[in-house]
Amino acid sequence: MQADSSSIQKSATSLELFSRNLSLSAGTFLIQEGERIVGPMRPGLKVAVMLEGRQALELDNRPAVLLDGPTVLVAANGGEHTQQRTGLADGALRCALMQFDFDFVAREFGADVARAARLACSDDAGFWVRPADAPIRSLALQMAECPVGEALRPLYLAGKALELGALVLDRMLGERPVRPARLNPRLREQIHAARDRLLETLQEPPGLAELARECGLNPTKLTSAFRTEFGASVFEYLQEQRLQQAYALIASGEASVAVAAFQVGYSPAHFSGLFRKRFGVAPSSLR
Fold first, then answer.
1. By CB atoms within 10 Å of each CB, which of 51, 66, 97, 198 scores lowest?
2. Three-state SS for 177?
3. Exposed, middle or buried by CB within 10 Å (0-12, 13-18, 19+), for 192?
């Protein structure tokens, strides 16, 4: 099924700022499996962080790039190209994205940054895709949940967008030019099954040995492969997902601090300390 972007149901904010040199959108979009959005790729530099959802992204006739789970994408385009996004599962696509004109990047961030970003994405158009680390996910979630009122929303989102863009570009430009390690298809399937099991049991997750056994691996192999795939240990990933889920529950008003802590498997006292350490604010400040 092919769809125009305007037909997608969404609960999100879209803005054009700095004389349209910066466009941003953040929130939740509802997608369907097999739904395709095809259109010209906008010139400039796009920075996107996907927090939830599964999509395949294609540029012209090149092989598709899989976006699965917390992912950061930088897309650079200096020519005329066509992109296609295909939904791989029904459900919510929660993300934050921003589009910069290259002139704006060169003027505000420096010509070296603009030039290096183009090169990192290859040729005159391309993608740079990596797992989204905790600081990047935190900023994207703050944009998606946007805790301020409508009048100040543009100011809040513009500040967060510039902060997120700087963080992503710093990570991209600071990488050594080496090919990231990749798992074989079978092992990747097992690791994703382990990840899915954790996400299904945030309140009472299985222990490492049990999780490894369920996925047909030993604990050592699970730990090593999990870090390769997701950039974090099993424990680190679980804690981050618990805190991100709790942040969303509290910020949206769906749960009190105590209820959110319980739903992700923490006592209120332990949760408050972890939350403050992770996000820099007390959970009660989100309400």
1. 66
2. coil
3. middle
User: What's the token pair of residue 42?
Assistant: 């906008």
Sign of CA dihedral 83, 86, 92, 94: negative
Calculate the dihedral angle through the C-alpha atoms of 143, 148, 153, 155, rounding to the nearest 10 degrees: -90
Torsion of CA 250, 256, 261, 265, to 10 degrees: -100
Task: Write out pLDDT tens, residues 258-277.
Answer: 999 999 999 988 999 998 88
Interval 112-143: pLDDT, tens:
777 767 666 655 567 888 888 888 998 898 88
Residue whose tokens read 């769906």: 254
3-state secondary structure of 128: strand
Residues composing the chain: 287
Burial of residue 63, with CB atoms counted within 10 A of its CB: 0-12 exposed, 13-18 middle, 19 or more buried: exposed
Helices and strands (DSSP H and E) totals, the chain? 10, 10
Cα Rg of the chain (Å, integer): 19
The domain 185-286: what is its CATH number? 1.10.10.60
- Residues 98-113: tens digit of each pLDDT: 888 877 777 777 777 7
Would you state the CATH architecture of domain 5-173? Sandwich (2.60)
The pTM (predicted TM-score) of the whole model is: 0.55
Q: Which residues are CB-contacts of 274 (< 8 A; sequence separation ≥ 6)? A: 239, 243, 266
The domain segmentation of the chain, as residue ranges, is 5-173, 185-286
User: H or E segment at 196?
Assistant: helix 185-200
Distance between CA 278 and CA 249 in Å, rounded? 16
